[in-house]
Amino acid sequence: MVKQLQIVQQQLNECFYDREEEVEALLIALLSKQHVLFIGPAGTGKSVLSSMLGSIVDGSRYFQHLLTPFSTPEELFGVLSLKDLEQGIYRRNVTNMLPEAHFAFIDEIFKANSAILNSLLTLINERVYYNNGVPIPSPLLTIVGSSNEYIEEGEGLEALFDRFLLRYEVDYIRNEDSFISMLKDQNEKNVTKISLEELYEHQQQVANIDVSDGILKMIAKIRQALKDEGIRPSDRRFKQSLSILRAKAYLAGRTEVIREDLAIMANVLWETSDQKSTAKEIIHEIAFDTVDAFIHRTTAEFETIMLTAQTTLLHRTPIARTELSQLLMQGKSLFMEVQNMNRQIPNRPELQSLKTEMHKQLLRITSDVIGF
Q1: Residue 165: DSSP 8-state
Q2: Under CATH, what is the fold of the domain 209-287?
Q3: How many CA atoms lie within 13 A of 215 on its CB side?
Q4: Which segments constitute the ATPase RavA-like AAA lid domain (predicted)?
Q5: Which pTM was predicted?
Q6: What is the tens place of the pLDDT at every residue in 152-202?
Q7: What is the DSSP letter of 156?
Q8: What SS3 state is found at 207?
Q9: Smallest Cα–Cα separation from 5: which of 242, 223, 198?
Q10: Where are the domains of the chain?
């Protein structure tokens, strides 16, 4: 049955270049009945990807809206009923509005003002909308929020930020080949639909995914390591993260959570943007073995150096040659780390592959610097 979702995942990956993590996040949010936040500059495809919620699940109700600082409750929750208002009753007509939606995409969600914030928080957290004081259960399963920027301290939006269990930074296409493929692509892609009833069945299967005591002990180890760095996610966030782990395992076609699944918690267990990289490093050290963690760290750092070098070559500023030389030295330093690790542990072919690829890229950048 999970093959159906894996096909949807593959099709979405074909539609959105260099967005594999975000596509996975969207599907995991659907399976776990959690909410996901995409943060990044305009033009990165956040809105288009998020709007796929409206077409993936057949038979569902979908709501989409762009907030501004001047947005009113009517835009999300419906207008006041004039008939009831004549009798002094402040009841809104919620037909086809957010309280009746199964899925929703709220663009620029941090533009939410005090007039709509309390109702939005209750709806997101409790799946209940209070209409004239009367609680109305909402069928809401997942909200995708997006923003061009993080919240600022003192804006009063911390509670709203906390409601999104999954948080992803979305940047422009990083891989050059993917960027060129995106420019060439003129074909309209179709994505297979699943029914709302099928989604409910998938969600029931997700709830049955096993989380072993060994995995729970690793989560406790992550919690302590984060605490040692001054990062203290709430117990509620740790508890809710189990649904994310189960959904990730299910989407991969497994019946139990494995150690590597813990890596996704790097998008869950941080509270402020400056904690993000530290949390990721801690979680990856535990989620992967020593060599895998080393490869992940080194690969990420080396890719950053190479991308920065490419940008420097394009701009050709007066100090570009000096900057390129410094970047080249940083790249060579990382290469030496990989070479030393490969000597210590020669039976790991992925270390040899990484060393070979890094050597090729360093030769290319060296040639560019010489010919600059």
Answers
A1: S
A2: Helicase, Ruva Protein; domain 3 (1.10.8)
A3: 20
A4: 215-283
A5: 0.78
A6: 877 888 999 999 999 999 999 888 888 888 898 887 778 899 999 999 999
A7: S
A8: helix
A9: 198
A10: 2-69+97-184, 209-287, 290-370
